[in-house]
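Lab notebook, design round three. We kept the backbone fixed and only want residue identities now. Task for the bench partner: fill in a sequence for the structure below.
Input structure tokens:
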């Protein structure tokens, strides 16, 4: 039987069942474990392999798949991962900047990785597949690159809501019939929800010259919202229990839930989705930069992109993969998806400020 060091036992296996999203868990468990054992994190494995530490919001399905596959192709590497929300990945890498523990920032909206660039948390690395990624998915100084395109969608419990009455666009969430029936993932920790809220506010700014209309929309949504779920697992559970019957989330996660039999159906917003450029970057000061580069190179390869699409419902960011070679779900998504026009630069610059304002002035104050 394969043996794991204490660090690996925490970073890999338990996080597949316990996702450390609360401040208490971060402060007590992660802090007490990781900081005293930083030497174990950045040193060699007990079996002589080089550890590769990934901080990621991608979830155990993709992380476990990539761990197994990459280790099989690179027997000298011991892949370890910590699964958190996108915002939490950023917060943790920033807090460890003086003594980095992660090698790869694996996943999250490009707007959040862009904040990492401002904080000098990433170092340049240009993989050989870089030119297969559209310019919108590449940092101009090679600090991060898009791996997947993740569209936010509208979700409903199909046992409680018929396809005919289900919401079809963002404004449908404000229909009075959904009052106290909407569940929302807490946006302060979620890159997906920050992206959706950022789209609403950026479009308001573009249309009217002010975010006032956008904040009023979010205030109305708050009035519809029964609860802000602390993590995706709770969101899914409450949706299945019909504690709420409508939400907005991201396509990949819902496809996984449907695969396991959850009664969750979805539709693509007719006015467009703010498609997330789910990106990867090399952490500045990474303890194992050469192994990290090897992983990034592999993660964007045709092999890994097709694997992620076939086994983990990831829509590849590469433009050189023929659509007919993608799985059926991906072809259907590409056919139905309307990409919204979004001022990503504005979201990048104002996103954190907007979310702080939302937390102070909107949360719990909707009509």
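Proposed sequence:
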């Amino acid at each position: 039987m394969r043996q794991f060091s204490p660090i690996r036992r925490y970073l890999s296996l338990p996080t597949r069942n316990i996702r450390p999203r609360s401040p208490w868990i971060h402060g007590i468990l992660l802090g007490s474990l990781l900081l005293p054992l930083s030497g174990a994190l950045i040193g060699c494995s007990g079996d002589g392999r080089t550890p590769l530490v990934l901080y990621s919001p991608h979830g155990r399905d993709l992380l476990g798949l990539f761990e197994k596959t990459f280790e099989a192709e690179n027997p000298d590497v011991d892949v370890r991962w910590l699964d958190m929300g996108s915002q939490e990945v950023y917060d943790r890498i920033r807090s460890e900047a003086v003594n980095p523990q992660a090698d790869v920032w694996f996943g999250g909206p490009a707007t959040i990785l862009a904040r990492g660039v401002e904080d000098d948390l990433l170092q340049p690395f240009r993989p050989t597949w870089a030119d297969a990624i559209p310019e919108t998915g590449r940092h101009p100084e090679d600090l991060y690159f898009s791996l997947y395109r993740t569209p936010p969608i509208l979700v409903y419990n199909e046992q409680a809501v018929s396809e005919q009455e289900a919401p079809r666009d963002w404004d449908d969430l404000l229909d009075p019939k959904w009052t106290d029936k909407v569940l929302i993932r807490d946006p302060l920790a979620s890159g997906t929800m920050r992206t959706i809220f950022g789209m609403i506010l950026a479009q308001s700014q573009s249309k009217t010259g002010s975010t006032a209309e956008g904040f009023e929309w979010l205030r109305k949504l708050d009035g519809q919202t029964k609860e802000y779920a602390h993590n995706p697992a709770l969101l899914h559970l409450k949706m299945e229990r019909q504690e709420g019957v409508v939400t907005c989330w991201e396509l990949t996660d819902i496809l996984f839930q449907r695969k396991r039999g959850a009664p969750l159906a979805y539709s693509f917003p007719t006015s467009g989705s703010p498609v997330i450029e789910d990106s990867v970057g090399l952490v500045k000061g990474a303890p194992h930069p050469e192994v990290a580069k090897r992983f990034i190179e592999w993660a964007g390869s045709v092999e890994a992109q097709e694997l992620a699409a076939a086994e983990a419902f990831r829509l590849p960011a590469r433009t050189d993969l023929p659509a007919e070679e993608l799985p059926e779900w991906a072809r259907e998504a590409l056919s139905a998806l309307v990409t919204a026009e979004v001022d990503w630069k504005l979201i990048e610059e104002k996103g954190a400020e907007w979310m702080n304002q939302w937390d102070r002035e909107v949360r719990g104050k909707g009509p």
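Keep this in mind before ordering anything: The chain is about 40% helix and 15% strand.
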